[in-house]
Amino acid sequence: MGVMVASADGHAVVDGQAGGLSSPADRTLYRSLRTASDCCLVGPTTLVAESYSTLLDPHQRERRESLGLASEPLLATISRRLDPDLAGLEIFNTPGRPVLVYTESGGELPACTSDVELVRFAAGSLTPRACVEDLGSRGLATVLCEGGPSLLGAMFAAGLVDDLFLTVAPLLTGGDGIGIVESALFDPAVALELRSVGRAGGHLFLHYATKA
Ligand SMILES: NC(=O)c1ccc[n+]([C@@H]2O[C@H](COP(=O)([O-])OP(=O)(O)OC[C@H]3O[C@@H](n4cnc5c(N)ncnc54)[C@H](OP(=O)(O)O)[C@@H]3O)[C@@H](O)[C@H]2O)c1
């Protein structure tokens, strides 16, 4: 699954973050999708730009625990060069929180207090598919990709996204900001099937499935 919020002209960022596009209902959507997921896969640039701290609210953790699940989905990222800024994030400094970092680097992250596991790949072999396969081998089948646009683009290019939850904000950013998917041209284009449409205030909530 992928989840993104865009301006009405398709841009993914206002002032360097997605927050200016979001809304309380969009935040609720993100958190409900996370509650239902085994793993949140987020690009390193997004983790840093959005200063990731928590994934769920206490009542959502309780709901998962009551179902016999881990209290939170696992957080995973793919940082081939092992971005050292990750180690400064609150989500990397929460004792007991498991985090997977897929990397091609032989280095180490600066010290952080979450349970961070570095999963190392040989240079040139770390692909989104290899990561999703590794997650599957750990029993983590439901993966929610929260972007950013580069990672989500690579996931779509590899045919790894079956559902896209796209929120459209009532805002035009103009300019040449990044879109919700940044990648080489898809050839053929990825065909989507509209599954549902919702509305809360001025925001539209679109659920697409990718067509086989
Ligand atoms: N509107 C929204 O819903 C939304 C959602 C998320 C983010 N955002 C915004 O998007 C911006 C960040 O997006 P982004 O696209 O620049 O960054 P990103 O996708 O979060 O992270 C990009 C990094 O991912 C790593 N990566 C690993 N495998 C990759 C692959 N196969 N292809 C591409 N990258 C790969 C690369 O780092 P290595 O070189 O270390 O591998 C790359 O530099 C932020 O401003 C954030 O606020 C908006």
- Backbone shape: globular
CATH superfamily: Dihydrofolate Reductase, subunit A
Q: pLDDT under 50 segments (min length 5)?
A: none
CATH topology: Dihydrofolate Reductase, subunit A
Could you give the topology of this structure?
Elements: E1 2-7, H1 24-35, E2 39-41, H2 44-49, H3 58-66, E3 74-78, E4 98-103, E5 115-120, H4 128-137, E6 143-145, H5 149-157, E7 163-169, E8 192-200, E9 203-210
Bound molecules: NADP nicotinamide-adenine-dinucleotide phosphate.
Question: Could you walk me through the main structural features you see in this protein, from its secondary elements to its overall organization?
Answer:
With 212 residues, the chain is of the alpha/beta class. It has one domain (2-210): Dihydrofolate Reductase, subunit A (3-Layer(aba) Sandwich). Helices cover 22% and strands 25% of the residues. It is built from five helices and nine strands; from the N terminus they run E-H-E-H-H-E-E-E-H-E-H-E-E-E. It is globular. The two termini are 15 Å apart. NADP nicotinamide-adenine-dinucleotide phosphate is lined by residues 4-5, 12-13, 16-18, 21, 43-46, 49-50, 78-81, 83, 128, 146-151, 154, 182. NADP nicotinamide-adenine-dinucleotide phosphate binds at residues 4-5, 12-13, 16-18, 21, 43-46, 49-50, 78-81, 83, 128, 146-151, 154, 182.
